[in-house]
């Protein structure tokens, strides 16, 4: 990673809530036009990380330390008024449930125009024309006739397209997509993610894709950062990651998933469990994954293993799995049979 | 041998304003003893309504439901009671289905009391046993639902269904709200319980990969109808309905070198419109004039494989 080329760089970000720290010293960067997937289970801090970049944390949360810079601008140093000029114009956010992000009593055309007129000096009429173009861009059929529709007139997939149209209206350099297709059906999911991918190429936009679905990551991201209990535990390019995930948690996540490319059936194949739950990470002095880890050693419980760069953009926070050279690494069982807490 | 559950030409209708929504529109299938039947489809296709209709939680408009040879379609509450014990349900959101003011002991004990099963000592023994069997710590009985994680709550939901020793459990999206690592724990538990108690499952999910893994036989539902049914291996090797093919094609592979094609179908399931001909024709890449006028019936293709497509 060359620091000068990064569009967004997050450096040792920690975010605290009263009583606990949701994100611990997370560092990552995104290059222009790149899709980085941030992956982990609910409560791991991935959405809090995204909200920190938008400076939209809930009132009881605060950035305890770290730096977030977008094209060289220190976002954490901006005033709220300055930040409002950044949101929507240079970085945008789309969320899981478009119905709760859209205003139910305003037409979609008006909501898109509002974004444009917030950031650019254009007439109502010109903004409306741009809104039609944007609806067209996100493949809403018959855009000119749909522009006066209200959110409730649209299906879930169409609403998410409207959200995307609003998010890209001012051609931001970075789009943060927080579980953008989790509420959608699988056939709609593919359409929406293809649309996002197409837009990032056409608009030269980078995407921070937050998801729990490794299939989505494999198909639509360039790089992955895996988070567990507030810490990034592995970062890698997509192909090396899926060829050989290195952190025991990454391996566990892939093993627990039903492989869609193989004829796996319960009669002959038992899914790999990660025993216990993320709740066991609370109060750990060492590695937070230690209570669930199949290859845990005594040292793991003493100090938090640092995210160690291994070259080629890969970094892993596990001294146990990275101490053995890749070629000689034995395959190990991911969990004891039926072990659970 | 009679099947455990037999559903014949079942219809369920909802009034939506002045219109009638045919949520389940003529569905027939069977579930054998100890068999797992998967029911897959997109949101709004009627799969949950079908599950609830079978359990008599939603009234049916036409057709029949037979459990263990007994027609339960029109039984009154008291006549229905002994049959309710035989078929139980597990929900997507176990928290929403647990009373937050009741301890787990009360939740489970109530189920036994309602069905007048055992005296106090016998019931207590069953509670302790079931809690251990679903993998919860022994002190769980005196705790409240909010003290448990999502995966543990689903174990409580499973315990509540299991404690009545049912023959059939309808599982409605039992792992959809759970993280991947917890999903595997719950699916493995359901497999173990099935083997141990000879349970039959009707497993409802929107996720074809999970359904195909978990079911012996799969029913694919679209807009109130079954459009394809086959054993899990047949469906995997030889899906015949364009909708089933599209569902498979849309599953994202965890192999980045496996390049996805164009999404095979466009648009979304719309349930408010009246359609003539095949319900899928407006989204089907291979639709012809015949599909627009003539509705295909679910026809046999051999070896228990059925599909409702003129060109299957």
TrEMBL record, chain A:
Classification via SUPFAM superfamilies: P-loop containing nucleoside triphosphate hydrolases
Q: What InterPro entries does the record tag this protein with?
A: AAA+_ATPase (IPR003593), ABC_Ni/Peptide_Import (IPR050388), ABC_transporter-like_ATP-bd (IPR003439), ABC_transporter-like_CS (IPR017871), Oligopep_ABC_C (IPR013563), P-loop_NTPase (IPR027417)
List where in the cell it is found: Cell inner membrane
Q: Which UniProt keywords apply?
A: ATP-binding, Cell membrane, Membrane, Nucleotide-binding, Transport
Looking up SMART domains in the UniProt record yields: AAA
Q: Is Transferase a UniProt keyword of this protein?
A: no
Keyword Transcription regulation carried by entry: no
Q: Which domain of life is it from?
A: Bacteria
Q: GO annotations under biological process?
A: peptide transport; transmembrane transport
Q: Where is the ABC transporter domain?
A: 8-254
Annotated Gene Ontology cellular component terms? plasma membrane
Q: What is its main location?
A: membrane
Q: Name one Pfam family in it.
A: ABC_tran
Provide the membrane topology annotation.
Peripheral membrane protein
Query: What one GO molecular function would you report for this record?
Result: ATP hydrolysis activity
Under NCBIfam families, the record lists:
oligo_HPY
Which family is it part of?
Answer: Belongs to the ABC transporter superfamily.
Q: What is this protein called?
A: Peptide/nickel transport system ATP-binding protein
Q: Which organism is it from?
A: Enhydrobacter aerosaccus
UniProtKB/TrEMBL annotation, chain B:
Name this protein carries in UniProt? Peptide/nickel transport system ATP-binding protein
GO CC annotations on file = plasma membrane
Record's family? Answer: Belongs to the ABC transporter superfamily.
Compartments (UniProt record):
Cell inner membrane
Q: Annotated Gene Ontology MF terms?
A: ATP binding; ATP hydrolysis activity
Per the record, the domain of life is Bacteria
Using the record's annotation, list all stretches that form the ABC transporter domain.
5-248
The alphabetical list of record keywords is: ATP-binding, Nucleotide-binding, Transport
Question: What is the recorded membrane topology of this protein?
Answer: Peripheral membrane protein
Key word ATP-binding present in the record? yes
Main localisation: membrane
| Pfam families in the cross-refs | ABC_tran (PF00005), oligo_HPY (PF08352)
Give the record's GO biological process terms: peptide transport; transmembrane transport
Q: Fetch the SMART domains from UniProt.
A: AAA
Has UniProt tagged this entry with the keyword ATP-binding?
Answer: yes
């Amino acid at each position: 990673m060359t620091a000068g080329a990064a569009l967004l760089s997050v450096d040792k970000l920690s975010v605290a809530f009263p009583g606990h720290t949701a994100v611990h010293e997370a560092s990552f960067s995104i290059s222009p036009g790149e899709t980085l997937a941030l992956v982990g289970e609910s409560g791991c801090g991935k959405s809090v990380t995204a909200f920190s970049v938008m400076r939209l944390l809930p009132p009881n949360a605060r950035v305890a330390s770290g730096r977030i810079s977008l094209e060289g601008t220190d976002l954490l140093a901006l005033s709220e008024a300055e930040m409002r000029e950044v949101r929507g114009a240079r970085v945008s956010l789309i969320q899981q449930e478009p119905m709760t992000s859209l205003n139910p009593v305003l037409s979609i055309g008006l909501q898109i125009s509002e974004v444009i007129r917030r950031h650019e000096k254009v007439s109502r009429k010109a903004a409306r024309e741009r809104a039609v173009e944007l609806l067209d861009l996100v493949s809403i059929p018959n855009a000119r006739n749909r522009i006066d529709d209200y959110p409730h007139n649209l299906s879930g997939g169409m609403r998410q397209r409207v959200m995307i149209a609003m998010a890209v209206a001012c051609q931001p350099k970075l789009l943060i997509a927080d579980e953008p297709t989790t509420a959608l059906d699988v056939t709609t999911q593919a359409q929406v993610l293809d649309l996002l991918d197409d837009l990032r190429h056409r608009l030269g936009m980078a995407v921070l894709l937050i998801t729990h679905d490794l299939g989505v990551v494999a198909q639509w991201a360039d790089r992955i950062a895996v988070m567990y209990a507030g810490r990034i535990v592995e970062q890698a390019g997509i192909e090396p990651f899926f060829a050989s995930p290195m952190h025991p948690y990454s391996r566990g996540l892939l093993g627990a998933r039903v492989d869609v490319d193989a004829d796996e059936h319960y009669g002959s194949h038992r899914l790999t469990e990660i025993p216990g739950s993320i709740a066991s990470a609370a109060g750990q002095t060492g590695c937070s994954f230690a209570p669930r880890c199949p290859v845990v050693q005594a040292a793991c419980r003493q100090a938090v293993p640092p995210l160690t760069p291994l070259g080629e953009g890969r970094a892993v926070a596990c001294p146990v799995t990275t101490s053995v050279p890749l070629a000689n690494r034995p395959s190990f069982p991911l969990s004891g049979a039926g072990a659970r807490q | 041998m009679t099947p455990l559950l037999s559903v014949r030409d079942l219809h369920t209708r909802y009034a939506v304003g002045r219109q009638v929504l045919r949520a389940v529109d003529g569905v027939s299938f069977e579930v054998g003893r100890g068999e797992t039947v998967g029911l897959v489809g997109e949101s709004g296709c009627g799969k949950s309504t079908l599950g609830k209709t079978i359990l008599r939680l939603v009234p049916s408009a036409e057709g029949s439901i037979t459990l263990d040879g007994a027609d339960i379609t029109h039984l009154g509450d008291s006549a229905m009671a002994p049959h309710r014990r035989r078929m139980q349900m597990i929900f997507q959101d176990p928290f929403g289905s647990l009373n937050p003011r009741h301890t787990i002991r009360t939740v489970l004990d109530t189920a036994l009391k309602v069905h007048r099963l055992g005296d106090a000592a016998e019931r207590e023994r069953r509670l302790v046993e079931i809690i251990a069997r679903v993998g919860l710590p022994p002190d769980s009985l005196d705790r409240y639902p909010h003290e448990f994680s999502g995966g543990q709550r689903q174990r409580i939901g499973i315990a509540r269904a299991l404690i009545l020793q049912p023959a059939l459990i309808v599982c409605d999206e039992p792992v959809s709200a759970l993280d991947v690592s917890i999903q595997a724990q719950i699916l493995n538990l359901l497999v173990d319980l099935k083997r141990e108690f000879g349970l039959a499952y009707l497993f409802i999910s929107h996720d074809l990969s999970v359904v195909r893994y978990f079911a012996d036989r799969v029913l694919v539902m679209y807009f109130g109808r079954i459009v394809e049914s086959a054993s899990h291996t047949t469906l995997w090797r030889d899906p015949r309905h364009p909708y089933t093919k599209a569902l498979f094609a849309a599953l994202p592979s965890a192999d980045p070198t496996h390049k996805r094609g164009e999404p095979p179908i466009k648009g979304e399931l719309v349930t408010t419109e009246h359609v003539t001909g095949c319900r899928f024709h407006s989204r089907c890449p291979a639709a012809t004039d015949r599909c627009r006028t003539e509705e295909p019936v679910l026809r046999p293709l051999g070896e228990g494989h059925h599909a409702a497509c003129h060109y299957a």
